[in-house]
Amino acid sequence: xxxxxxxxxxLSTLIQRAVARAIVPTSTPTPKPDRCxxxxxxxxxxxxxxxxxxxxxxxxxxxxxxxxRLIFSRKELTDWVEEQTIKKNSDDATLALAASARRKKxxx
Length: 108
Hints:
This protein has helices spanning 8-23, 38-45, 49-57, 74-84, 91-107, and strands at 35-36, 64-66, 69-73. The chain has 108 residues and is mainly α. A 3-stranded antiparallel beta sheet has the order 1-3-2.
């Protein structure tokens, strides 16, 4: 057995370094892969599974097939959601609301 002589400050510094090394994770968290499943696509888009199935069957949403499974790209989905979003002050939004009101009035 070997005896080491240190001051209180040196001992405190050694303990702090050892604790800091033990607490700090040695590896960085791995990023999520770009591809995602149907359930994850539901979370990203906020749409139901049935709506996603309809959009994929008409090729209105970016997707790929892997055997029998639908695979989506997170980046492509978020870009697609942004494209579908209508700006508040847009003339297109006003026209869409007017058309919707006319349809409701005819049904009505």
